[in-house]
Amino acid sequence: MSGRTALPVADARSLRRYVRDLARRHPRLLWTALGLHVGAALAGLAAPRLLGNLVQAVEEGTSLGHVDRVVLALAGFLVLQTVLTRYARLTSQVLGEQVLAELREDFVDHVLALPVGTVESAGSGDLLTRTSRDTDQLSWSVRWALPEWTIALITAVVTVIAAVSVGWWVLLPLVVGLPPLVIGLRWYLARAKAGYLRESASYSTINATLTETVEGARTVEALGLGRERVEAIDDDIRESYAAERYTLYLRTVFFPSMELSYLIPTVATLLLGGYLYSQGTVSLGEVTAATLYVQMLIDPVDRIVSILDELQLGAASLARLLGVAQVPDDRTATGRHPDGEQLDASDVRFSYTEGRDVLHGVDLHVGVGERIAMVGPSGAGKSTLGRLLAGIHPPRTGSVTVGGVGLTELPLDELRGHVALVTQEVHVFVGTLRENLALAAPPGAGEERLRDALDAVDALEWADALPEGLDTVVGSGGRALTAAQAQQVALARLVLADPHTLVLDEATSLIDPRAARHLERSLAAVLAGRTVIAIAHRLFSAHDADRVAVVEGGVIAELGTHDELVAAGGSYAALWESWNGGVTDDRADA
Ligand code: ADP
């Protein structure tokens, strides 16, 4: 969607800091895993040495017994390497899973702490992609790419050391292989990302054009657009073909150049070793060992190079996951506690998009226990004001306070004990009914509290009739609750949270009319003894209120009792007149 502000993405520095902190949380596991990997790599290095010595021994004349012993030693090191590798991988997996679990927990914490306004303006799509695709990508990287890459790196380093320990001359063939490797890699990496992005974008375009054509098939036919659509798809396919050809070209240059740079050192070691041997400087055994070591390097280096791509994707996902934590909080807990239950809004201005206020200086002082009805045309700002009065958004200027403390100065769980917003949107979480209620209950609330809350909203009867009572699993996948039951669960949560002030946003207007009567009783029970600000779409609830606030164009245009406003002859009087004239209801003549 246009005009959406995407959620932030963490930069490289905070990424590194996070990875460092994460590594520091499990020093023992980390070092054990690394140590085991090094051990396994070292055990793998014995073979070339032993083989080299064997070649040397054969040249100098040896016995069968010696050959047998060498072969036995080779087998021994192989077994050792296998055992060490097994435990190394096990430890890395355990470490990986722990890190992953912590990452997910951190992410969930950050998502839950996101200001509602940010989620709304960024759209839930971005957040969903991050929770699904990015966590998947990251899991893959942490579970597979990172350990493989670390193992390859350790193996490569240890192998280079072993190769050089045969003789300093081995450095020369190794260095010769470096330039083609580095140049090829840099050439490829500089082009690959854009190339592959273009390729996947071209697939999306083909998809979009095709779907559009199929969905608009009637229009296409009616307007005779067939040819143009075919041409459009042809263009898309041409582009996709070009994009694929390009990435194919990248690979046809990159892979051979890599193969070449892998082979160069091996060949060079053989040649240089052969020359030095002919000069009598090195022994045949040394040449054999060196060549085998250099050959052994190919595999880990190849893995280091090919996994690099995967790691980059993982890092990009991590950056997007960490970005969520960087959204500035719009609440700052100051530790002040409200003194009393008085709710006051003073000179409140608020805008969703910068520079376009939807509230223009609202003052509203709500008496304790008062019932206020908010009415006004659609789009006037009633819901917005309701959300500010419930502390969901901070005002741009001015203040909304309860007992003298700004609503956004209170931590969310404390705020909910003072003011709560009730909307038609109720959600039943997957879990037991008990868990659904306990969300809102003070910690340690017992069975009695939960049952009393259900009873208060007239829901105890059906709750007890569930197959497993309060322990019945409800929500998606569990037992489906009716819309009215879901509303009652939400109301019972309110009873448990026990706020002294409620803001109702069209709380009962979407309810199934057959259930409405019943629910209104439940709602009335919840409202009893609390301060209520109701955004009213049906005027009779305004009629019952202590005061009526008419919101028009982002300000409170009229404020007073029903009788006062009717007598004043303003817009409320006009509304009342038209509503009253059109409907015959026993309340109308009250
Ligand atoms: P009411 O409840 O009186 O119908 P609202 O408070 O919903 O009015 O809306 C007031 C104004 O704010 C409208 O112009 C509406 O388009 C705008 N608005 C409401 N919600 C958002 C939002 N999430 N983002 C941007 N603008 C919004």
Automatic annotation (TrEMBL):
Superkingdom assignment: Bacteria
Membrane topology summary: Multi-pass membrane protein
SUPFAM superfamilies: ABC transporter transmembrane region, P-loop containing nucleoside triphosphate hydrolases
Regions crossing the membrane: 29-50, 70-88, 146-164, 170-189, 260-278
Localization, UniProt: Cell membrane
ABC transporter domain mapped to chain residues: 343-578
Principal location: membrane
InterPro entries reported in the protein's UniProt record: AAA+_ATPase, ABC1_TM_dom, ABC1_TM_sf, ABC_transporter-like_ATP-bd, P-loop_NTPase, Type_1_exporter
GO molecular function, one term: ATP hydrolysis activity
Residue ranges annotated for the ABC transmembrane type-1 domain, each copy included: 31-313
Entries under CDD domains matching the protein: ABC_6TM_exporters
Keywords: ATP-binding, Cell inner membrane, Cell membrane, Membrane, Nucleotide-binding, Transmembrane, Transmembrane helix, Transport
PANTHER family: ATP-BINDING CASSETTE SUB-FAMILY B MEMBER 10, MITOCHONDRIAL, ATP-DEPENDENT PERMEASE MDL1, MITOCHONDRIAL
Protein name, UniProt field: ATP-binding cassette domain-containing protein
Naturally occurring in which organism (per UniProt): Nocardioides flavescens
Record lineage: Bacteria, Bacillati, Actinomycetota, Actinomycetes, Propionibacteriales
